């Protein structure tokens, strides 16, 4: 009988340790993701640049540049893209939900890229500008890095 009691107490302790281990690990993962997002968007602003690549290649690269940051592309045309990030509850309620619009136009020997992040009204304080990180990702893709 004493062995059964020790076994049940040990099992209970293991379950409690596993539960609290996961409860502590989850916020660390969320904090790491938040830190990565803050690093990516720090100093970000809207982009209006000319790149020396054809418009179709730039459009594909920008689409790929939006994916790592959780953007769902809503409109996809040869000269225009728009996408939104899903909303999530974070430290600041209403974070996420940013809308990015990309306008492409032929320019002498290349393509003009205009990327703008719209923050909207709801949860404005928790939203970030994603234009520069998306542009940097697109440039990596275009350069083959």
Explain this structure:
Strands 1-5-4-3-2 form a 5-stranded antiparallel β-sheet, with helices on one face. The protein is built from 3 helices and 5 strands; from the N terminus they run H-E-H-E-E-E-E-H. Helix 2 (55-66) packs across helix 3. A hairpin with a 2-residue loop joins strand 2 and strand 3 (80-85). The termini are far apart. The model is unreliable at 23-28 (pLDDT under 50). It has 2 domains: 1-42; 44-143, Kinase associated domain 1, KA1 (TATA-Binding Protein), CATH 3.30.310. The longest helix is centred in the first third of the chain and has 40 residues, at 2-41. Helix content is 45%, strand content 25%. The protein has 145 residues and is of the alpha+beta class.
């Amino acid at each position: 009988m004493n062995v059964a009691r020790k076994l049940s107490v040990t099992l209970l302790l293991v379950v409690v340790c596993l539960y609290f281990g996961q409860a502590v690990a989850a916020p660390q993962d969320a904090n790491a993701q938040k830190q990565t997002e803050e690093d990516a968007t720090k100093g970000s602003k809207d982009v209006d640049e000319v790149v020396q690549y054809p418009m179709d290649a730039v459009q594909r690269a920008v689409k790929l540049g939006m994916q790592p940051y959780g953007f769902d592309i809503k409109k996809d045309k040869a000269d225009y893209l728009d996408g939104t990030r899903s909303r999530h509850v974070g430290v600041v309620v209403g974070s996420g939900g940013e809308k990015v619009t990309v306008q492409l136009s032929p320019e002498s020997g290349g393509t003009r890229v205009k990327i703008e992040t719209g923050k909207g009204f709801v949860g404005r304080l928790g939203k970030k500008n994603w234009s520069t990180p998306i542009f940097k990702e697109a440039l990596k893709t275009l350069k083959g890095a």
